[in-house]
Amino acid sequence: MIPDFNGHHFEKTFASSQHQRRERYRCARCEMTAEIRNDGVTFFGNGSATSMSLDISLAMSSVPACHGAVLSAERRMS
Fold this sequence. Notes:
Number of helices: 1
Number of strands: 5
Helix content: 10-25%
Oligomer: single chain
Number of domains: 1
Strand order of the largest sheet: 1-2-3-4-5
Shape: globular
């Protein structure tokens, strides 16, 4: 599971199964993709990778803020 961070809300996709070596996710707000390998390394659709097993906040990673959350906030203000 990928916790919410930087406005992203990742949900497991239907393509994920126990027979695959990676779990696939997609942000419900901006459609960014992510994959978690069995070794805990997570690859994001922007080309960045991080280890979920390290005690490092995902908010400090090179994954950009969710554009879907920004667009939603802009719509509420208008």
